[in-house]
Specification:
- The chain is an alpha/beta fold.
- It has one domain: Zn-dependent exopeptidases (Aminopeptidase, 3-Layer(aba) Sandwich), CATH 3.40.630.40.
- It has 7 helices and 11 strands.
- The protein has a 7-stranded mixed sheet, sandwiched between helices. It has a two-stranded antiparallel ribbon with strand order 4-5. A two-stranded antiparallel ribbon has the order 10-11.
- Helix 5 runs antiparallel to helix 7.
- Bound molecules: zinc ion.
- The site of zinc ion has 3 residues, from loops.
- The site of zinc ion (ZN) has 3 residues, from loops.
């Protein structure tokens, strides 16, 4: 297995306390990774190009952290103990499965797609521990350190957890079969981010002509609920982008709208940076 599991890109302009993370845009697999699902099935969980879509944040003084490995190896947007015990070859007291594990998409996926199992064998606890130690914990450690350092330095920090979503959910999703909005913002019903930041991002997208939904169908996963603590001036928000806006969803290559959509995201990034600079200056 490779030593580095993430890519940390630091600001190329005067630093501000704005941190983006993209936990599902990786598509590498460890050399010793074995599963029975096809690569086509594995790719369906890939938030392709999401890290590239948001890279302009570096020019505004923000930070960008991206995963290198596929979420199908281990999902960075899950609690480290969100494990379905049925996946394992032996009982493990650590397992605390949540609604995600119940749907086959916990920390370690049981299903690649509805009715498509990931594995034809039980997993050894050692395999899970190896993925936690070599992929999961390093990513969370670097994110936590970055958020801690910036919050200490500036008195507050804004964290944006970046994803993309299928234009229509499948059977494993809570909104199976429904067409989705262009953009879904998740702040766990106001519990992980101050409302002003969310409102500013919502208005930014709407001014550009996009349809924005709030907390539906996604309220925000483990990353924002774990790191967002608005009462401590630590704000986390999830952004889901409808893949049809920038991707050929069947082929996982960018479509003709990619560049113009990325330019629009540049406007949103610029608005976020202006907001953060103003908040820090007023503190
Ligand atoms: Zn995602």
């Amino acid at each position: 297995m490779k030593k580095t599991s993430y890519c940390l890109q630091l600001p190329v302009a005067t630093e501000i306390p704005l941190v983006f993370d993209s936990p599902h845009s990786g598509i590498q697999f460890p050399q010793d990774f074995r599963c029975q699902a096809s690569l086509a099935a594995l790719k369906t969980g890939w938030d392709a190009k999401v890290n590239e879509l948001w890279e302009e944040v570096l020019e505004e003084g923000g930070t960008l952290l991206s995963a290198l490995y596929s979420r199908m190896v281990i999902d960075l947007n899950r609690a480290p103990d969100d494990i379905d015990p049925d996946l394992l070859a032996a009982p493990w007291a650590l397992c605390k499965p949540t609604k995600y594990s119940d749907r086959g998409m916990g920390l370690i996926r049981k299903l690649a797609l509805p009715d498509v199992p990931m594995y034809d064998r039980p997993l050894e606890i050692e395999e899970v521990l190896q993925r936690l130690c070599e992929i999961y914990h390093p990513y969370h450690q670097v994110l936590k350190t970055r958020l801690d350092d910036l919050c200490q330095q500036f008195g507050a920090v804004w964290h944006v957890d970046c994803h993309s979503m299928k234009s229509t959910g499948n059977k494993m999703n809570v909104d199976a079969g429904e067409r989705r909005a262009d953009i879904v913002l998740g702040d766990n019903d106001g519990n992980c981010c101050e409302p002003g930041f969310v409102e500013m991002v919502k208005t930014s997208f709407e001014s550009l002509g996009y349809v924005v939904a709030l907390n539906k169908p996604y309220k925000g996963g483990y990353l924002v609920t774990h790191y967002g603590q608005p009462l401590l001036n630590r704000h986390s928000m999830q952004i889901e982008i409808n893949r049809a806006l920038y991707l050929d969803e069947a082929k996982f290559v960018t479509n003709d709208n990619y560049q113009s959509f990325k330019r629009d995201l540049g406007v949103v990034i610029s608005n976020m940076a202006t907001y953060v600079r103003a908040k820090v200056a007023a503190a």
